[in-house]
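Researcher: Please predict.
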Amino acid sequence: MGGKNVGEYFKGVVETGSNATQYLNGEISGLEATFDIGMGIIGMIPLPGCAAVSLLYSVSKAAYEYSSGNTLFDKPAKQTVSPTQLKM
């Protein structure tokens, strides 16, 4: 299986689940979830360079967001509930 071990695959599965949860909770957009999950899957492929591509995406995204104060992808609009919507 290339150079991957069970721990690396487990990490990839946990990260994919985390990204899916963030999307389902409305914390990240569908586009961001697609890129993050896709790059996570690419990182788990046991071929030379796949982990490097995944890592480059993650590091570049984090560096851009940290240095600029902006997010790489637009965040979904927050759903707000007014007090009148809470009344039954």
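Model: The mean pLDDT is 85.
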